Amino acid sequence: MNTVEKYHAIKVDTNKCMGCTHCMKSCPTEAIRIRGGVAKINPDRCVDCGNCLRACPVDAFYVNHDGLEQLKNYKYRVVLFSSVMIGQFPEIYSEGKIYEALKKLGFTHIYEVEQPIGLLITKIKDNVEQLKNKPAISSFCPAIVRLIQSRYPSLVENIIPVKAPHDLAACYAIGNLAKEGISREEIGIFYVSPCSAKMAAVKRPLGETKSIVDGLINMKDLYNNIMRVISKKEEGDTSDLRKNLTRDGIVWSLPRGESRQFRRKSMAVDGIHNVVKILERMENEEVPELDFLELKSCHQGCAGGILLTGNRFLTVERLQKRSNRYKSVAKLGVLAENCDGIKDKLKAYPIQPNYVFSLDTDRVKALAKLQKVDRILCQLPGIDCGSCGSPNCHALAEDMVQGDAKMTDCIFLQNRYLNEKKITIEKATKNLEKAWGKNRFDADCNKKGGRNVGF
Amino acid sequence: MNLNFEIASGDFSKAGRASSHIKKVLKQLQVEPKVIKRIVVAIYEAEVNVVAHSVGGTLSAVIDEIGIQVELKDNGPGIEDIEKAMKKGYSTASKKVRDMGFGAGMGLPNIKKNTDELSIKSKVGEGTTVTFRTNF
Q1: Domain coverage including residue B87
Q2: Where is the 4Fe-4S ferredoxin-type domain (chain A) (predicted)?
Q3: What sign has the CA pseudo-torsion A52, A57, A60, A62?
Q4: What CATH number corresponds to the domain at position B23?
Q5: Mutating which of A283, A371, A374, A392 best tests the B interface, going by the most B Cβ atoms within 10 A?
Q6: Interchain contact, B16 vs A286, CB within 8 Å
Q7: Global pTM?
Q8: So what's the ipTM on this one?
Q9: Chain B residues with CB inside 8 Å of A366's CB?
Q10: Low-confidence ranges of chain B (pLDDT < 50)
Q11: Is residue A41 within 8 Å of A93, Cβ to Cβ?
Q12: For the segment A192-251, what is each residue's pLDDT rounded down to a tens digit?
């Protein structure tokens, strides 16, 4: 198990959270419970996929990030971002205008992370060939890697141990600046993240204590900043900064962006709930022989990243159009510049399974707990309403055997106990308030959740 | 603990229910991933066998701290020649079943490969009982 404490990008603003059940129901790892009227994330289970952010009607979830003020601490300021960022702007803002806006915001060097993608493709292909366990699963999406570690430990060995494009781009940028005689200390590397999962992965890469980047920027935040300074007409020519960008790079983070490199013996799945279904089948060996499996947590890949502003389908459309204007890796060659040394840095640290779903490390105890869960389930109504603060009846039963909930947390059981005169009304009300907060059941429009208009 | 499942004949969409449920249980017991995989593959194959070949049956699994014991019972038609059925690639599956991607004649050999003990008892016209055990 990791000695490094698990870092999470997603936090709950308990003042904003009104304690509904949307996030809890959408979490693919059942990591959220409602306690005291607010959402609580179990850090061991959370994979930072961001589904809770998407589901929240009051924006109570937020991601930690560094503001642009940090730029002033460095002489040279490098911005790294995925091509999807360009794709979310309306057509009138050309890539040139966006690059110019980034310079206005104070960045001295601009890199789309997919520039040296040719290197990554070669490295991944080498790894796929060597990997004993097929299909080789892409390690591109950090939420998927974490999901496999916890829910599908038997598939950990299928993950390709190669670092992500941002690692590659950071090395590439540092290398290029070194050629200009600039030392690492003078450079501030800022990564613009399209999602919470990449934020967590960049901030605390697996098995490493220090991140390669100096600052993390929320893509939504940067979008607003760019819109503030972007000009109506293009003033200069920034195309030289994109000379290593390829068609393959631009679509890399979109569905089939990776798997298209492997032609027919590959498959691509997007959306974490779809990924769960395919991984279940993979564990049963129900998936046909494949070399490469691309799995992305968000629908439409990173174009659907939770920190994007643009509509995911429009973003995909625009990126595809944009990619047609660029040469393919095959035509351009791996890189126009010499980049020795980067290739060796692409090997990722080994990925370990993380048994967070085990009921107990002692098998005899785990078995006893499992039997207890079974007995409790007979008592519960099986409605999966979430009124207890757990996502469904089964999860509540598990919480009970782990000492984190009790029978009277179920409102239907409580009703039965009231009828049987086993508990008093006062006690029952107190129980409900424990999960949902005080005064939650008053007739008051201004109470927490009082004006929940739903969707 | 005991887990019991009904398996209906001919409904391939439901093949995999028992194996998925048992898989979840084994993960909660923190059984080694490789062992879970062997068990799940064996159970899935056995489920498909009942769906594809029999008139329907039951699956019961007994899990203790040492391992899992699985028994599948169906009510017919029974296996004529068990030795032949154990051979890789031997299949009596209909074209319809094969067209669905099943019936490649790997079922029983695959179960044998993935279990520690396997016993098959069958009587034509009456039914088949497949029992296997895998230790954690």
Answers
A1: 2-135
A2: 8-36, 37-66
A3: positive
A4: 3.30.565.10
A5: A283
A6: yes
A7: 0.89
A8: 0.81
A9: 28-30
A10: none
A11: no
A12: 999 999 998 888 766 565 678 899 999 999 999 999 999 988 888 998 899 889 999 999
Domain boundaries, chain A: 10-63, 68-346, 363-436
| Count of helix runs (H) and strand runs (E) in chain B | 5, 5
CB A321 within 8 A of CB A327: no
What distance in Å separates the CA atoms of residue A73 and residue A69, rounded to the nearest whole number? 8
Give yes or no for a contact between A147 and A137, defined as CB atoms under 8 angstroms apart: no
**Which residue in B37, B33, B23, B38 sits closest to A353, CA to CA?**
B33
CB distance A283–B37 less than 8 Å? yes
Inspect the interface and report whether the beta carbons of B65 and A280 lie closer than 8 Å. Answer: no
CB distance B34–A353 less than 8 Å?
Answer: no
Chain A CA closest to residue B41: A284
How many structural domains compose chain B?
1
Confidence of residue A140 (pLDDT cuts 50, 70, 90): very high
The residue among A222, A250, A240 whose CA lies nearest residue A104 is A222
- Distance (Å) from the alpha carbon of A359 to chain B's nearest alpha carbon: 5
Q: Which fold has domain A10-63?
A: Alpha-Beta Plaits (3.30.70)
Give how far B125 is from chain A: nearest CA, Å.
31
In chain A, the percentage of residues whose pLDDT exceeds 90 is 62
Give residue A4's pLDDT.
46
Cα dist from A450 to A64, A325, A442, A445, whole Å: 28, 52, 9, 5
Q: Which residue of A has its CA nearest to B19?
A: A284
CA atoms of A247 and A261, how far apart (whole Å): 12
Q: Check pLDDT > 80 for residue A260.
A: yes
B28 with A364: Cβ contact below 8 A: no
Interface test with A, best of B29, B35, B41, B68 (most A CBs within 10 A): B29
Correct CATH for A363-436 of 1.10.10.10, 2.40.10.10, 1.10.15.40, 1.10.443.10:
1.10.15.40
Instruction: Judge whether B36 is closer than 8 Å to chain A, CB to CB.
Output: yes
| Residues in contact with B42: Cβ distance below 8 Å, sequence separation at least 6, in sequence order | B70, B110, B111, B114, B115, B132, B134
